[in-house]
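Re-run with default settings, no changes from the original entry. Doing this only to confirm the output is reproducible before filing.
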Amino acid sequence: MDREKLFHYVAPCSLLCYTCPGLKDGAVAECASKLCRYFEGYYDFNDANLPEKFRGMLDEFKVFHNRLERYSRRHCPGCRNNPGANTGCIPGCVVPECVKAHGVNFCGDCPEFPCQKAREFFDTVNPVIGADWENGGQRIRDVGIDAYFEEKKDVSHYISYKKPTDGENA
């Protein structure tokens, strides 16, 4: 993958914009668009052929398809492409401007990483994000951005927020 695309898909903080449902050309929007294409004609076919006892499924499908269409039309350009200071998926995020000021592509590339400025910001927003930022930045240092992207490209953007289910440790 070329560097420009890779830098678009991996935010300066190390979170993967690629797997975020908000990214206009990310994995979720791409998958939703593909599913929408596969479902073309599905409603009309079932409307004409579905037995009466299953017709309630048509309403469920409409809701599902409308949601898919919304996910296929996301609008976020990614942290590096949002105009203005302190823009990104977290309001007031200090990272995009900070990496620019330090002349690096990722926090993990900075000699000051992990810095107190970002750590304090993430502590005020959410410690889970702070841990992801620090672990991701360190991983980028250890393996490089290409390998990091390969490791993360199929992992949910929000995996750290997964609540334990019954029987799992909290």
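The CA atoms of residues 86 and 94 lie 6 Å apart. The chain has a mean pLDDT of 88.
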